[in-house]
Amino acid sequence: MEFTPSDTITIEVLINASTEQVWNAWTNPLIVLKWFGSDPNGKGLKAELDVRPGGRFEITFENADRTQHTCFGVYTEVQRFNKLSFTWTWKSEPGVESFVTVLLAPVNNMTKVTFEHANVGTLSSHDYLAGWKRTFERLEQTLKQK
Hints:
By secondary structure, the chain is of the alpha+beta class. It contains three helices and seven strands, in the order βααββββββα.
């Protein structure tokens, strides 16, 4: 299967939090439950994270309309406070696998997050760009509350 640039979404955002705080938001299940999911009124239900190369994750969240979504995958690269890469599959779309990379870099007293979701293709029904933008808004709100 070939992929074109349109098969990859990239988001860069500057978050007013330390790289350690942003890293923990991606790797601590209790924090993930507070922000993961694109519905501003949704909630996390379950987060199991084995954050190491070859470790698995599974996250379930619920939208305000009570629709539940579960994503899962395997961590392929883990560089503490710097880089997290993992495969991505929706439970509702078995066999449709994509790939996520999260890069963190300190900028003054903030963190630049470069997020890439590659190989999203056309087989998924999810609007990844809009969904991830809303998800990052939730992440920023969660980190402001600390």
